[in-house]
Structures are given as C-alpha cells and as structure tokens.
C-alpha cells in the first residue's frame, strides 16, 4: 500500500483525488492547502477525514504517514515543495508546468536524485484515449514511413475572459506566457511521445484576446531528418464551434491530428472520430468516438506512477524526461521572440 499526501486542493485536485481513490494499492493519508476553506470543502467532498487535513506542508511532512507527495500547486511553488518532500524522503509526483526555467527544473531533478527519491511530472495528455490509440497504430507501422504531421487545437476561450467573468483558472488572465507554457507542455510532451525528438523548431505566437497578458495563439513548425510537422494551436478561434456558446466561460478544447505516411493517413477529427485512410482512398473507422477524458487519463497516469514505484521501472515522464519537453516550450518563446530557428 502506498500512502499519498496531497498538496494543493484547488481546481484540478479532484482529478488526482478521484484517481487515487480508484487505484487499488493507494490511500490518501494526508491532504494540505494553506486555504483552509478550500481544504475542508475538498476533503469533505471526498470523505478525507479531519485528522488527515493540514494547512501547512512542513507539519504534514512531520506528522503524516506518507510515502508520496502529490504536488498540485502552481509552478512557482514547485522548487520549495520538492526540496521539502525530498528532504523528508518522499517520492514526488509534481504537476506541470514543472518549472519556470530549465535551471530550476534541473535543480529539482538533482535534489530528488541526491535524496534517492523518485520524481515524476504529472503529464496526463499523452494518456488521453486518442493519443494512446494513435501511439499503438504508429508502433504497428500503420501509416508506414512518416511524411507530415498536423496537430491542431481549437477553442474560443480567451477572448471571453472579460473582467466580469468568473473563470475556473482566473490566473490565466495574468500569465505572461500563457498558451505554450500552460498547455504547450502537454502538446509538446504528447508530440515527443508520438513522433520522437525534433531536430528543428520555429515558432510564431500571437496574443489575440484583449483580456490576457500572454499569447493565446501560435504555430510551431517542427523538423526531423525525413519528416516534418506543424502545431496550429489557438484559444481564440471560432473555426470548430458547432453551436452557440453558453453564458459561462469554460474550456471547450478540441483537438485534431492528421498523420500522413507513405502507406496511410491517420485522422483524428475534432469530434473525436478516429480513422485511417489507405492508398485506395478507403477510410476505415478505428473509433467512432474517442474522448479527451481527463479523469481516465489521470487514472492511467497515476496507475503508471504506482506501477513504476512497485517495479522500479522508469517513469515515462520523469523529471529528467520533462527537461526535454520544457526545453521545447522555452525554445518556442525564444524562437517567436527572436524569429530564430532552434537546432538540436
Ligand atoms: N494536468 C492538467 O491537465 C492540469 C489541469 C489544470 C491544472 N493543472 C496544473 O495544476 C497546478 C494547479 O492548478 P489549479 O488550477 O488546481 O490551481 P489552483 O490555484 O486552483 O489551486 C492551487 C492550490 O494550491 C494551494 N497552494 C499553493 N501553494 C501552496 C503551499 N505552499 N502549501 C499549501 N497549499 C498551497 C493554493 O492555496 C490553491 O488552493 C498548475 O500547475 C496547473 O498548471 C494541470
């Protein structure tokens, strides 16, 4: 049995809690947030007893019986929390974006290594259903030799961040680097998972919404020795809106992926339909409806974390691995700011 201590009971924590409560050989034996109202609400909601609740992480690490610290707080808190957990000998699962810089990420990796504790970044996007199916198709060489890849994310989200709106994550308004820092870590991690490490990258980014500080649209051109890809990502496009938007401003992310090889083309439609088209033009349905089901992705991700603790196997998205994703994220900003091609 692995005893889990959670830090951060904000917006996304319910995905973690639900997954821990679903995974057989784990139990939540501590939960912490400096905001006690939020701490008690979330704990009540998920039947986490009062004796397990803490408003201070140092006290939690001193008093609670935990093996793992699950960090669900913003990136600026990660270094301090990783230091505390590692010093207490706890394994660590830390939310994305892992760090504000490569130097900070490297420091956390080193701290965990020196303390002899395991460190994984909570990178759930690659565990979403369509990407897991596509990975298996690529492993079976279903498209043959890769030629071109187009990954498209659409939402009409940030232009609706008017000051009167209550947002699930209000801090999005003020983030100086928004789309590719907050979401780009997911996309670039998923991209690496499916297509491997790039050899070139060039990016353009743009701020469309008057209600954000950071960029909310951008394109990244990604080169390999013998194939290439484009990421076309935007929170400020109406192109896939199928019906009038509701009053409340919530994310409504849609993703498409078109992977062209010499044998076939894989198509993930924004509806979730997944097909493969052969050289005769025959389109075969792989799945009528795949879902961006975040709860399911967390069950798989956290299950993988526990499997690796049990077996000693490498985490797919260890702190060390995540350095590669973060490098692509920061290089995206550098490329866009300086019109520079990044070479690897
Ligand atoms: N993987 C995903 O798909 C996904 C989705 C949403 C958010 N996230 C990430 O999860 C992290 C948290 O996001 P959120 O939207 O839940 O934020 P949030 O602001 O809603 O919640 C964060 C909570 O952490 C608490 N906190 C911060 N520092 C603390 C400390 N030192 N001790 C105790 N409590 C502390 C805050 O009081 C707050 O309640 C972010 O890094 C975000 O990018 C990931």
What is the ordering of alpha helices and beta strands? EHEHEHEHEHEHEHEEEEEEEHHE
Q: How far apart are the termini? A: 42 Å
Shape: globular
* Helicity range: 25-40%
Strands ordered across the widest β-sheet = 14-13-12-11-7-10-9-8-15
C-alpha-based Rg, rounded: 21 Å
Structural class: alpha/beta
* Small molecules in complex: nicotinamide-adenine-dinucleotide
CATH superfamily of the largest domain: Dihydrodipicolinate Reductase, domain 2
- Number of helical regions: 9
Identify low-pLDDT runs: none
Find the CATH topology of the largest domain.
Answer: Dihydrodipicolinate Reductase, domain 2
Q: Supply the CATH class of the largest domain.
A: Alpha Beta
Number of domains: 2
Structural topology:
Layout lengths: L1 E6 L5 H10 L3 E7 L3 H10 L7 E2 L2 H7 L4 E4 L6 H10 L3 E5 L6 H14 L3 E4 L6 H11 L6 E9 L24 H17 L4 E7 L10 E7 L4 E7 L19 E8 L2 E5 L5 E5 L4 E5 L6 H18 L7 H20 L3 E2 L1
Parallel strand pairs: 1-2, 1-4, 2-3, 4-5, 5-6, 7-10
Antiparallel strand pairs: 7-11, 8-9, 8-15, 9-10, 11-12, 12-13, 13-14
Helix pairs in contact: 1-8, 4-5, 5-9, 7-9
Bound molecules: nicotinamide-adenine-dinucleotide (NAD).
The site of nicotinamide-adenine-dinucleotide has 24 residues, from loops.
Protein name: Dehydrogenase
Organism: Paenibacillus amylolyticus
GO molecular function: nucleotide binding
